[in-house]
Write a structure and sequence with these properties.
The structure holds two protein chains of two kinds. Helix content of chain A is about 80%, strand content about 0%. By secondary structure, chain A is mainly α. In chain A, a hairpin with a 4-residue loop joins strand 1 (about 85) and strand 2. In chain A, helix 1 packs antiparallel against helix 13, helix 6 crosses helix 8 and helix 7 crosses helix 8 (about 175-205). Chain A starts with a helix and ends with a helix. Chain B is mainly alpha-helical. In chain B, about 75% of the residues lie in helices and about 0% in strands. Chain B has helices at about 1-10, 10-30, 30-35, 65-100, 105-120, 120-135, 135-165, 165-175, 180-215, 225-235, 245-270. Chain B is elongated and about 75 Å long. Chain B starts with a helix and ends in a 5-residue tail after the last helix. Classes of the chains: A mainly alpha, B mainly alpha. Chains A and B meet through helix 1, helix 6, helix 7, helix 10 and helix 11 of A and helix 5, helix 6, helix 9 and helix 11 of B.
Chain lengths: ~300, ~280
């Protein structure tokens, strides 16, 4: 990517963010729940109609929609995402505290996934149409159909309840707490990736340079590891960017199962208790992270793919 | 005669369409299969019974028969999933065809909205939408449809763009074909096969997403028999009553496998690249 493309991408990110902020704000605005009522009930006060009205006007909830939206957006730009009434803390503090555990979980499950998917995918590509290939393809087929929350529950049943090896509740966020959640996520992802690795490696194996190198007498395993493998990583990087982004937001199911202290878990409880500022903040944050990761991935092509460097 | 040949020629497809039809039939004939047991009526005297002769999948904490709930759950899951797939198929497909055919401002608006949705992890937005609208199956369907239609729009648009400036299309316009005629006779037939394949392969993953939403409590609400919800209800009894989790999970798994296989074999048949 050259400078012009980067600038246009950044502009696109800004436009998308404005759209998403508008959408989430609109949704919370039209939603049937009343945040003030929720807030008062959460603090244990009996909500009277007068009290609700006075707090509503104090919080500016009676202002026209666009006035409210732009005030909120302005505050967000200054780094103030509002105050969570559920946990009585600023939204930024809450999100920051939960970001690192989710990031750790994402990284660990991605590494695990690669450890499973790359060898399996390569094996099944190299031994195409042999029994190994059929076995791997069969496993991946069942893998994509498994609901990840069910896998999580079954792992929990076996490792925590039956043989008492690991903690049932992973609320500490330490290494031992991360094992089962990341294995669950890795199993679900690796089925998809094994297929991708297989396709990518097969694509490379059939290209002319492989035949050329073999004709010159280069050992097959050398070609595989030194040429085919690095080349087939390229399409995987794009996918990885997308998955890491969606993992950051999509780990909620697994986080809830294992009571893991991550962003997803926070978001689920925020949604359950109608904590609107927290929901809005969370959605915006995940969107920013997701888009930044994808931008970084696209930029990384400049370094990974020599053809991109030559183009400039 | 020709029809018979088709089913014999595509054995894999035939096998899985029969299985899929069996699942659909089980959902339709639920009252017959369960001998009229009400999936929502409990009997506290029979709470948390392990699988036995009377309750082959056991009972839950309210004494409700798990087998009946699993079978009735197929109704909830299948209707919800098929509605999601139909909505995104129709809305996404039409949006994409309009964007590709008309171009200009229509294209820009539709595609920027699609960009917005795609540049964003789907489940997060679906969670927020379903949570804010309130938990029920209809809202879960809306939430997932809202974040998934863009894929079809992009696909349909790119297919329309491919033929939009072909000579025969221009010729049809020059000879006076009206826009609705152009869209229904020229654009849609060109788009449909690919969209149908995509829709068929998407059924499984949509079902998983819906079950996940219900599992988190943003989809079906008790006492609706729904597989994701049943899993989340069974969680608390993991140690004492694992059958509460095993059977609904298996039901999801088997159904998703069948529909995924069906989608794959349909793709193999319809995709011209495989010939």
């Amino acid at each position: 990517m050259n400078r012009k493309q980067i600038i246009s991408r950044l502009l696109q990110i800004v436009i998308v963010l404005i759209g998403i902020s508008f959408l989430t704000f609109l949704l919370t605005y039209v939603s049937p729940g009343d945040p003030v009522r929720h807030m008062l009930t959460a603090t244990g006060t009996m909500p009277t109609e007068e009290l609700i009205q006075s707090i509503r006007s104090e919080m500016g909830l009676n202002d026209p929609f666009f006035v409210q939206y732009f005030r909120w957006l302005g505050n967000c730009l200054r780094g103030d995402f509002g105050h969570s009434y559920m946990l009585n803390k600023p939204v930024v503090t809450l999100l920051l505290a939960r970001l690192w555990p989710t990031l750790k979980l994402t990284i660990m499950s991605t590494v695990l996934m690669l450890l499973i998917a790359v060898p399996l995918g390569m094996l099944s590509a190299v031994y195409k149409n042999s029994w190994i290939d059929y076995l791997v393809r069969g496993i991946t087929f069942f893998g994509v159909s498994l609901p990840n929350f069910w896998v999580g529950l079954m792992l929990m049943l076996v490792f925590c309840v039956k043989i008492n090896l690991l903690p049932v509740i992973s609320s500490g966020g330490g290494f031992k707490d991360m094992i089962l959640p990341s294995v669950t996520l890795a199993i679900a992802m690796s089925a998809k990736y094994t297929r991708q690795v297989r396709t990518a490696v097969l694509d490379e194996l059939t290209s002319d340079y492989v035949i050329g190198a073999q004709a010159r007498g280069v050992k097959f395993w050398k070609i595989l590891w030194l040429n085919v493998f690095p080349n087939s990583l390229l399409p995987l990087i794009t996918m990885l960017g997308l998955s890491i982004g969606s993992l950051l937001g999509g780990t909620s199911v697994v986080e809830v199962i294992f009571s893991y202290p991550g962003l997803g878990n926070l978001a689920v409880s925020a949604i359950t208790s109608c904590d609107y500022y927290l929901i809005q903040g969370y959605v915006l944050w995940v969107a920013v992270i997701y888009m930044v990761i994808n931008l970084v991935v696209d930029l990384s092509y400049n370094f990974v793919d020599p053809r991109m460097r030559l183009k400039r | 005669m020709k029809k018979q040949n088709f089913f014999i020629k595509n054995k894999q497809f035939t096998f899985f369409i029969i299985l899929a039809l069996l699942i659909v039939l089980a959902a339709i004939l639920a009252p017959v299969l369960t001998h009229g047991i009400d999936p929502t009526a409990g009997n506290l005297k029979e709470a948390i019974m392990p699988p036995c002769k009377e309750h082959i999948f056991g009972t839950d904490k309210m004494g409700r028969d798990i087998f009946a709930r699993v079978i009735y759950g197929a109704r909830t899951s299948l209707t919800a999933t098929l509605s999601v797939v139909c909505i995104i198929f129709v809305v996404g497909g039409l949006m994409g065809v309009f964007a590709g055919y008309f171009g200009g401002i229509v294209d820009t608006v539709i595609m920027r909205i699609a960009d917005m949705m795609i540049a964003f992890p789907g489940l997060v937005l679906a969670l927020a939408v379903a949570g804010i609208l309130g938990a029920n199956v209809r809202n879960a369907v809306i939430a997932i449809a809202l974040v998934s239609w863009t894929k079809y729009a992009r696909l349909a648009r790119s297919l329309v763009m491919k033929i939009r400036h072909r000579d025969y299309v221009s010729a049809a316009i020059v000879t006076g074909s009206k826009t609705p005629y152009m869209i229904t006779r020229y654009m849609l037939p060109n788009v449909l096969p690919t969209l149908v394949i995509t829709a068929a392969t998407d059924i499984g993953s949509m079902m998983l997403e819906l079950a996940a939403l219900s599992f988190l409590g943003f989809g079906a609400t008790p006492p609706t028999p729904e597989w994701g919800l049943m899993l989340s209800e069974g969680r608390a009894y993991m140690q004492s009553a694992p059958w509460l989790m095993i059977y609904p999970g298996l039901a999801i798994f088997v159904t998703v496998v069948v529909f995924n296989m069906l989608g794959d074999s349909l793709r193999d048949i319809l995709d011209p690249k495989n010939e």
